[in-house]
Amino acid sequence: MLKKRKKFPKERLTGAVLERVTDHQYFFTLEHSLNHYENYDWWKYLLKDILFVLLYETEFYLCIENSVDDKSLWKDFKGYESVDTVGDNVWIKCKNVDSYILITLLEDYENLWEYEGPLHFFAGIQDDKEKNPDTMEYQMKLSSLRDSMGIEIKVAEKEMKEDIIKKIKKVMDSYRLTLDFKEEGNE
Amino acid sequence: MAISSYYRCTYGNYSETESTVKYNEQNNSNGKEMIKGVSTAVQTNPYSGTSFKVASKTSGANVFNLLDSTAGKVKDGVARGASVFRVDGPHGKVTYNHFNTNSSLYPNNKIYQALNHKKISSVTYNIGKNAGKITKTLKVGGRAVAVAAAIMDGKEIYDAYKKDGNKVGENTITTTSGVAGSWVGAIGGAKAGATGGAAIGTMICPGLGTTIGGIIGGFIGGIVGAIGGKTVGEGIAKEVMNR
Questions:
Q1: With a threshold of 0.80, does the pTM exceed it?
Q2: Which of A102, B106, B200, B215 has its CA 20 to 30 A from that of B152?
Q3: Which residues in chain A are contacts of B86 at CB distance < 8 A?
C-alpha cells in the first residue's frame, strides 16, 4: 500500500518569542506564521491574557487607525468612558481593561490584527487633546502586528522591562508554553 | 481548404478561388470574434457570480486584498467578511514581499495554506500593487478594441447589404443576426466563463485560484461565446427565413 505523504505538516504551538529591539521596544510574536500551527486558536486566548495582565488596573486609550468608517465600533464600545474620532482614527478611553473589550477586538475585529488598523493601547497617559498616535506620550504602548503575528510593546522607561517579562512569563506558564527571549539579531 | 486551392497556394500559382476566399473570410471572421471575446472578457469582473471582491482600500504594507463577503464572524446576523488572499510588502519581522492567506479559512486546503507568508518576486508584488491600474487600462483598451470590432461589424453588414443588391435581404439579415449573436455570446460567455473559472479556481486554491480561474475562464468564455453566438445567430436567421 502506498504511504500517504504529509506535504505541509503543522506543529503544535509550544511557545512564543519576546524579542528585544531596543531598550524601549519589544515584539511579542510567534516563531512562525499562524498557519504553521495546528492549535492556532490558542494564540487569541494567549494574546487576550497577555494584554489583560499588561493593561490591568491602568487607564488607557485604545486607538484604532483607519477605522472611522466602521460604524459597528461605536455600537460595540459605546459603554466606555468616551468614544471619539480624530481624522481616520477611532479613540476609545477606558478606565480599566476588561475581558469584553479584548475579546470583542480579538474575535469580532480579526481584520484589525490581520491587515487593517493597526490598533494601539496607550497606557499611563495624560489627557491628550491632539490624539495623534505618532506623538502621544505614554508609559506603555501596545500595538497590533500585522498578519496576527502578535504585539509590539513600547515602554517609556527601560526599567519596566523586568516587570513586563515577569507578567508575560506568568501567563505563558499558565498555558504551559515557553517564552523564548531574544535580543535583536540573536536568532 | 480544398485540395486544388492548397496546391495553388503551395506551388505559387496562387489565384483567389471561391474556396480560398471562403477560407480567408472564415478565418477573419473567427479572428474578429476572438477580438470581441477578449475585449468583452477584459471588461468582465473575474469575481462575478462569486462572493469575492477586491478591497477598495488598503493600508500599511498591504497592496492587494481579496475579501470574501460571506466569510468571517457573523455580527447582527450578517457576516462581517474576511480577507482570503493578500499581497503584502515587508512589515514587522517579515522583511520581504509576500502572500498572505487566512489561517481560519480552508484549513484543509494545503495549497492555500502553503501560500501564507510565501516570498514573492517584485514582479508579482507590483502586479498586486497595480492590479487596479492594470484592470483600468485593460478596460479602456478593451473598450477601444470593442469599438474597432463594432466598426468591422458595420462594414460586414454593409457588404452583406450590397451583396443583396442594396436592399435588406437574406445576407443582410443573416449577417446582422450573426453580429448580434456574437456580441450576446461574448458578453454572456465571458460572464459565465468567469463564474465557472472562478469556481474551479476556488476549488483548487481560494483567492489566487479564484483570480486566475476567473480571468482565464472569462477569456475562454468570451471567445467561445462570441464564435458560438455568431453561429447560433446566423443559424436562427437562416431557420426563420427558410420557414
A1: no
A2: B215
A3: 115
